[in-house]
């Protein structure tokens, strides 16, 4: 079974571990550079992207993970994990010194944090998800980001309101070794996103 790391500095680590194990992976919690040795995939869970980035910097895993992404390690980012994969954040949070929040990058997209507004900070919806038809994906959004702009190499997998409607907000993307969703499959019974990620790992 492939060994898949789960970034375990903050956020919903346990749910992803469970799902990964359900779809046939061995899992390892990632907190130090040494934990990264030998992993065949990595999941970046939801949580708070600013806190996660700061902790990764402090723990010395920011640059090693960037390097692994560049080398082609399959990575799946959910919610805050999507933000951490994005090359660009619109109106990023600034720290006390005025520095914008960091990301690992690698995914040629611009994301907007907390994009769905206050009254809809959390909501659930059934989405059409490319490659998983005909059954919709039940998606839970929790203070979720949206992809505002996606570069030419980025495949759009899901939009709120349906894939056919160009106006729908982008909430699922794939680009090479990177998969990302605005929503949290790991809080539902929806294991197909993790399955898709396992296929990406197997193909590599
Ligand atoms: N709003 C959070 C952030 O910007 C993401 C929320 C989540 O991961 N559920 O990091």
From TrEMBL:
Pathway: Cofactor biosynthesis; pyridoxal 5'-phosphate biosynthesis. Signal peptide: none annotated. GO terms for molecular function: glutaminase activity; pyridoxal 5'-phosphate synthase (glutamine hydrolysing) activity. One of its GO terms (cellular component) is cytosol. The active site is at residues 79, 184, 186. InterPro entries: Class_I_gatase-like, PdxT/SNO, PdxT/SNO_CS. NCBIfam families: PLP_synth_Pdx2. In the presence of PdxS, forms a dodecamer of heterodimers. Only shows activity in the heterodimer. Catalyzes the hydrolysis of glutamine to glutamate and ammonia as part of the biosynthesis of pyridoxal 5'-phosphate. The resulting ammonia molecule is channeled to the active site of PdxS. Belongs to the glutaminase PdxT/SNO family. This is Pyridoxal 5'-phosphate synthase subunit PdxT. The lineage of its organism: Bacteria, Bacillati, Actinomycetota, Actinomycetes, Micrococcales.
